[in-house]
Design goal:
The protein is of the alpha+beta class. 19% of the residues lie in helices and 38% in strands. It has one domain: Yope Regulator, Chain: A, CATH 3.30.1460.30.
């Protein structure tokens, strides 16, 4: 039986609803956290009460310049950084800000 998402994941789903025009927004538990999909694209993850957005070479600089921190985890090889960044705090309170 699938586990229900925690409140912070439900809140993030509410923030992401404007993406629905590109396909269904959904989430599921994975790897000790949660993944978010729009259509077939994974665009965000949530781990330990924190949401991270997928970044690429085109938008990474914006996240870095805004002071956003990347998702990291400890592995046998040391601290690993993934291509997901925490959004600005204002975006976590507003669907409009999240969609920018």
């Amino acid at each position: 039986m699938a586990q229900p998402p925690p409140r912070y994941v439900v809140h993030a789903l509410d923030l992401f609803q404007s993406l629905g025009r590109h396909g269904a927004v959904r989430t599921k538990a994975m790897f000790g956290g949660w993944g978010f999909w729009c259509g077939e694209l994974v665009f965000a993850i949530a781990v330990e009460d924190q949401v991270y957005l997928k970044v690429d070479d085109e938008n990474r600089r914006w996240f870095v310049d805004a002071g956003c921190k990347p998702f990291t985890y400890q592995s046998k090889r040391g601290l690993m950084e993934m291509s997901y960044f925490h959004p600005p705090e204002a975006a976590l309170e507003s669907p409009e800000d999240m969609s920018l």
